[in-house]
Amino acid sequence: MITQQINLRLILVSGKSKDFLFSPSDSAADIAQHVFDHWPQDWKLTIEGDKYSNFLAAVDKLS
């Protein structure tokens, strides 16, 4: 018996990619949770220099 799987490939603009395999019966919520729980460690968001200061200033204005 052949089991079908769906391949979800996430691609960063840097060219890095990550594949996830899912069953057609998996819900969107299950897929989203799995991707969140297994997000690649080296894909962390980094904010440098003035961008970080601008980000903090924008967040401060919202609070």
Helix and strand arrangement:
Layout: E1 6-11, E2 17-22, H1 28-37, H2 49-62
- Rg calculated over all Cα atoms: 17 Å
Instruction: Enumerate how many helices there are, as a single number.
Output: 2
User: Would you count the extended β strands for me?
Assistant: 2
**Low-confidence regions:** none
Instruction: Give the biggest beta sheet.
Output: 2 strands, antiparallel
Alpha-carbon distance between the two ends: 56 Å
Net shape: elongated
**Topology as a string of helices (H) and strands (E):** EEHH
Organism: Leptotrombidium deliense
Protein name: UBL3-like ubiquitin domain-containing protein
Domain UBL3-like ubiquitin: 5-47
Pfam family, one: Rad60-SLD_2
Structure description:
With 63 residues, the chain is of the alpha+beta class. The chain has one domain (6-61). The chain contains 2 helices and 2 strands; from the N terminus they run E-E-H-H. It has a two-stranded antiparallel ribbon with strand order 1-2. A hairpin with a 5-residue loop joins strand 1 (6-11) and strand 2 (17-22). The termini are far apart. The mean pLDDT is 83.
Question: Which terms would index this structure?
Answer:
single chain, 63 residues, alpha+beta, two-stranded antiparallel ribbon, 2 helices, UBL3-like ubiquitin domain-containing protein
